[in-house]
Amino acid sequence: MPVDLFIFMVLLLVNALMALALLLAARTLGQRRMAHFLAGAFGLNVLMYLSNAIYTFLFPENVWLDLFVSALALTPPILATLAYRLRSGLPLRTRPLFVSQAAALLTIALFTFAIPNRGLSGAVVPLYAAAVLLFGVTALWRPGRKLRLGERPIIVTGFAMASIEIAGGLVLAAMGNGKSAVLDQAYTIIVFLGLPAMTVAGGVFSLYLLAGDLAERLRIAADTDSLTGAPNRRALEAAGTRMMAEARTLRRSLTIAICDVDHFKHINDEYGHDCGDEVLCRLSALFQERLAANDHFGRFGGEEFVLFFPGQDSEAAQREVEQLRKRIMAMPIGDRPDALTASFGIASMTAGDQILADLLKRADQALYASKEAGRNRTTVDPQFEPAL
């Protein structure tokens, strides 16, 4: 089997399978719009390779068919770039991208009709594809943006694909209108070694990207309270265990507070569960606004929230908690005429606290003392806090 035919069959099959897989992924893995962009890129590759085969074997002198094939070849990198920019949260720049495609087609037409040069005409597509791909992957890999699961392989594949396209484009440009066995062999090697491998890698890593997004969404759902959007008990226990280990390693303070809404059952009974739900959601929003990080608080269960103050002793944490308690008193909830109040219990980590439950137990005892003393107050666990 000729090498050219083998490359064609491999690329055709791989692109068709990847387009189908990404269409299925759009239905099952989420991120439908991004998956459709990527599926469209692979699907247009299939159409381009079939059209190119018709041009090469049936109508080799038809320049208009050649231009049509070029237009198809210019589109997949645009769709891939739209997918990456969509993922990164940047403007898609759809119009400038398709205007640039039209400019590339005009350049091909220039080297086809006005200044005939088959090498330069053929070089436009791979060089343009490389530029657009680099524009796309750099949207993912830019200063200040944290890479998400599956993005690093896509970036590496994008740069590798762009390098192959640039190498192939330079070889084609060097050919001009002449023939060179050396350059022709070089182009065949570049395409034979690079395109099938990078096409497979691009498809596989695109699926990995979508699967990683689904896994992350499931993880977040498992760690998130469905009502308030705050971290749930499972996430709190994981965060607290991690913070305790960090406190021991870094020999720094760790203080926690338990917040309990006063007379929450009365709120539900008197004003309805919708009002009770609003109270919990308002508290969650307040803690998210005032605390240093999203994993520094969470809903422990019912009307109780746990707050973490890493690096702060009980005195510093108490000052912050008192500010929160006063903010809660000023919080309007529906048509309730009376003020909303909450009680707090605070405990700082000691050398005797082996697990998070030890620290929570002492904070809970302090909270009970606040309730016994009349509610709407903050009590600090009296246990001495030695240096860790």
Describe the structure.
- This protein has 12 helices and 5 strands.
- The mean pLDDT is 91.
- A 5-stranded mixed β-sheet has the order 2-3-1-4-5, with helices on both faces.
- The chain is elongated.
- Helix content is 69%, strand content 8%.
- It folds into 2 domains: 3-222, Rhopdopsin 7-helix transmembrane proteins (Up-down Bundle); 233-380, Reverse transcriptase/Diguanylate cyclase domain (Alpha-Beta Plaits), CATH 3.30.70.
- With 388 residues, the chain is of the alpha+beta class.
The largest pleated sheet is described as:
5 strands, mixed
Give a count of the beta strands, DSSP E runs of length 2 or more. Answer: 5
Number of domains: 2
Q: Tell me, what is the CATH class of the largest domain?
A: Mainly Alpha
Strand order of the largest sheet: 2-3-1-4-5
Label the structural class. alpha+beta
How is this structure best summarized?
By secondary structure, the chain is of the alpha+beta class. The protein has helices at residues 3-28, 32-57, 63-88, 94-114, 118-140, 151-175, 181-222, 233-250, 264-271, 273-290, 314-329, 356-372, and strands spanning 254-261, 297-301, 304-310, 342-348, 378-380.
List the helices and strands and how they pair.
Elements: H1 3-28, H2 32-57, H3 63-88, H4 94-114, H5 118-140, H6 151-175, H7 181-222, H8 233-250, E1 254-261, H9 264-271, H10 273-290, E2 297-301, E3 304-310, H11 314-329, E4 342-348, H12 356-372, E5 378-380
Parallel strand pairs: 4-5
Antiparallel strand pairs: 1-3, 1-4, 2-3
